[in-house]
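User: Last request for today: this protein with flavin mononucleotide, please.
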Amino acid sequence: MNVASGADVRRLLRELEVFAGELPDFDPSAAPECPVELFTEWLLDAIRAGVREPHAMTLSTADSNGDPSARVLILKDVGPGGWQFASDAGSPKGRDLAARPYAALTFYWAPLARQVRIRGPVEPEDRERSAADFLARGKGARAEAMLGRQSQPLTTLAERDDAVTASLARIEREPTLVAPGWTLYSLRPETVEFWQGDRQRRHTRLFYRASDAGWTKQLLWP
Ligand SMILES: Cc1cc2nc3c(=O)[nH]c(=O)nc-3n(C[C@H](O)[C@H](O)[C@H](O)COP(=O)(O)O)c2cc1C
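Assistant: Here's the final one, the structure of the complex with flavin mononucleotide:
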């Protein structure tokens, strides 16, 4: 394949179609009072539509200087306690969250042209809940997380493979092992925004804000 020139790439990008095909309707006047309920409906729609990894979301954090980072994580649970995800507390994102326990989550379900954005404070769950999340993971995922070296420099892929193989053998011998840094986090939502794309660009946005009296809802200009 030829490497396209800058102009080719620009033309290619301009020609790409957005919001093609059938898109769902979204009537914000019928939206539930609680955003967790609407989020759950949209997540189920994404699962039913066969979206690949519908539970993948972008977690955005900032470090102590305010410098941002974003990466994709798996949603572990959602409910009255908020949105949950898990990672190594010693990883860059874990260090960001220790320094500034506040984050944003973004979901995008492309075939449905739907985006959800959530912001709020993040708290680590206790050791017991974090351990239960760890032990519910598959062996391969546990073996990898046991290494506790996420995002550190790696010299060769063979070094990775040897370490994972040794870690797997350790887990086989001691199946109740829990990675010491593995942490389940909960983001308690302060704001949640639902965005439904439309082919004619009449996108619908519904913004929820938490208040002492419950949730307030507000339409936003697209
Ligand atoms: C679909 C997908 C799911 C992922 N799920 C997780 C996850 O649940 N936990 C995690 O620590 N990293 C997960 N990752 C890897 C992260 O995106 C990231 O590379 C890693 O956590 C290191 O991030 P950090 O250096 O910002 O700490 C996932 C990546 C993808 C593409």
